[in-house]
Amino acid sequence: MRPCLALAFLAFAAPVLAETPPPPSVVPPNPPMTAAAFEAYVTGKTLTYALDGTVYGTEQYKPGRKVVWAFTEDECREGYWYEKGPQICFVYEDPNDPQCWMFFMGSAGMKAEFIGDGVGSDLSEVAQSAGPMGCMGPQVGV
What we know:
By secondary structure, this protein is α+β, with helices and mostly antiparallel strands.
């Protein structure tokens, strides 16, 4: 008779167990920003990014998907960005391959995840302004 009671208990408990929602840690993160959302967020702003809490560089986003980038205490490089699927890719005036990223909106601003072999190169937005960025080197004041 005891095996019958155990089976009866399982029959009633199974639907309750199936309705339990997943724990919060299983909820997927925000999806990558679309090119339209990225463009709407960044155009007309100058954003400063950090890597592991240390300022990494600053980028000014101009109309027409034009950009000016500078690593911290380095010369400015002009370029542009374009959409490649869920990625936002940047090409700068110095000869290099496109640098592609996926951007995510978080509660503390935008986050950028590098797509490529740069392990650990995820950046976080740490500051923004509406003014132009200060450039060092031969193009001062650009």
